[in-house]
Amino acid sequence: MAYGDRVIQQDLTFTVRRGEIFVIMGGSGCGKSTLLRHLIGLKKPRSGTICYNGLDFWQQSPSRKRHIMRNWGILYQGGALWSSMTLAENIAVPLKEYTDLSAGQIRDVIDLKLALVGLAGFQNYYPSELSGGMRKRAGLARAMALDPEILFCDEPTSGLDPVSARRLDQLILELRDSLGATVVVVSHDLASIYTIAGNGLFLDGETGTMLATGTPQQMLDAGNLKVGEFLTRGRDIEPLS
Ligand SMILES: Nc1ncnc2c1ncn2[C@@H]1O[C@H](COP(=O)(O)OP(=O)(O)OP(=O)(O)O)[C@@H](O)[C@H]1O
Q1: Residues with Cβ within 8 Å of residue 62, at least 6 apart in sequence
Q2: CATH class label, 1-71+148-233
Q3: Is any ligand 1 atom within 6 A of the Cβ of residue 32?
Q4: How far apart, in Å, are the Cα atoms of 1 and each of 7, 30, 60, 103, 208?
């Protein structure tokens, strides 16, 4: 992965398994968001391949790419809702763009998705009328509008108070369990990582590559000092040496 001549990360090899919550972790500026941009098809890797269900994404035709992307939901930092639209209108956008549902059916899906994230009855609220946690949950409802196979979340708990953050973690776990979605999360929130992560990887900004992969415990057990410091900071766990 590179911007111009500057290589951000290289030699990344990992697999996200269906139905798991996979967390991309690492310190500030190491390239987590850049990796996410590659995974959601916004940026082409300088070299190497990114495969979905065995298909090399960048080798696909534009229509096939669009078809693959139709099965993704994305929760951006802050929720990224359109401020001039109500929650119902926000969630209706992908439904109108990608489906032939009638207005009544779209209303039903909106009601369902808002109920799923604990926002039943908030259809006519504008994002500015909601708390940060509610905005994230509304963003999640929009990301889930098309019943995606893969849900990508960029720092979902950033900017939230601890109670809202843990509620969002629980919601992500529930969505994975009830809808069977695969979830890929960028996070450096330790409480969140230990709550939701099945597997993940640790990116290092200094060496520009991944230092560990696996469950958080496996990453700790692998004994890399930087990974150990990251995964035990502020916790009552002895850093590995
Ligand atoms: N559009 C861009 N053009 C050039 N360089 C960029 C661009 N976006 C990010 N970078 C650089 O790439 C590096 C990785 O950035 P990135 O945002 O992916 O890191 P991050 O791990 O997500 O950081 P943070 O945790 O602080 O959000 C940084 O040095 C950043 O300055």
Answers
A1: none
A2: alpha beta
A3: yes
A4: 6, 11, 20, 42, 10
Q: How close is the Cα of 132 to the center of ligand 1, in Å? A: 24
Q: Each residue's pLDDT tens digit in the chain (241 positions)?
A: 999 889 999 999 999 999 999 999 998 899 999 999 999 999 999 999 999 998 999 999 999 998 899 889 998 876 688 889 999 999 999 899 888 999 999 999 999 889 888 888 999 999 999 988 888 889 988 988 888 999 999 988 888 888 888 988 998 998 888 888 899 999 988 999 999 999 999 999 999 999 999 999 999 999 899 999 999 987 654 544 4
Structure tokens given for 78: 């802050």
Asked if residue 8 has its Cβ within 6 Å of ligand 1, the reply is yes
Whether 29 lines ligand 1, by a CB cut-off of 6 Å, is yes
> What value of ipTM does the predicted structure carry?
0.96
Residue spans per domain, the chain: 1-71+148-233, 79-147
